[in-house]
Write a structure and sequence with these properties.
The protein has 212 residues and is α/β, with parallel strands linked by helices. The chain has seven helices and nine strands; from the N terminus they run H-H-E-E-E-E-H-E-H-E-H-E-E-E-H-H. The chain is globular and about 55 Å long.
Length: 212
């Protein structure tokens, strides 16, 4: 028991995807990643957005089942999209028969006037909201309470025995969501505020997950 928890898990469970300083050390590819499937009618869908221009915009489509399990069924991860281009692309990627409860985005975009247009216009939040209204999708401002948000994320990551005896959790990521799987497990604790994660990492998907 003198070994660090990450090394002990690696030795005991064969979880070699854990490392010292890892923020989400609950992450386990064998538990949290699944093959894609067609989600049943009646599951809620939420779209969450972390906006970037030079850095990637990260978008997640989250399906939530009746047992409170969260499934990341689709992702978008792309740089150099204006607010208009991003909103259009999100609608293109959302099937017409997919009922979206609401979309949620980084609250800071409501204070961001279109930097990438020649004439300053409405805020990023207003631009996306207007485009989403064409499909009757509400756009909400995300909660910026980082620590509470990360705790909610951890709750979903917790591993628990399933009814069949296999280990499960309330978070499931489709194996097609490459960038979420690539970036989120690699995030580390902030050296000054260790209960928060280090924002110097590739945290865009983690942020959209937290807003959701």
């Amino acid at each position: 028991h003198s070994l660090p928890s990450s090394m002990r898990r690696a030795m005991e469970e064969g979880s070699w995807d854990v490392f010292a300083g890892q923020y989400f050390d609950e992450w386990d590819m064998r538990v949290h990643v699944c093959k894609p499937f067609k989600t049943p009618i009646g599951w809620r869908t939420i779209i969450s957005i972390d906006y970037g221009y030079e850095k990637p915009s990260a978008v997640g489509w989250w399906a939530i089942d009746s047992d409170g399990h969260w499934w990341l069924i689709r992702e978008l991860y792309e740089t150099r999209l204006t607010y208009t281009a991003l909103a259009d692309k999100i609608l293109e990627m959302t099937p017409l028969n997919e009922e979206v409860d609401f979309a949620v985005a980084d609250p800071s975009i409501w204070g961001d006037r279109q930097k990438h247009d020649e004439i300053p216009g409405p805020s990023g939040g207003e631009v996306i909201k207007a485009i989403f209204e064409k499909r009757d999708i509400r756009l909400l401002r995300g909660n910026h309470d980082r620590l509470q948000g990360w705790q909610r994320c951890r709750e979903l990551l917790k591993k628990v025995p399933g009814p069949d005896g296999k280990v499960s959790s309330k978070l499931h990521v489709f194996s097609t969501c490459y960038h979420f799987i690539r970036t989120v497990p690699g995030l580390i604790h902030d050296s000054i505020r260790p209960e928060d994660l280090d924002t110097g990492g590739e945290d865009h998907h983690a942020d959209e997950w937290r807003y959701a």
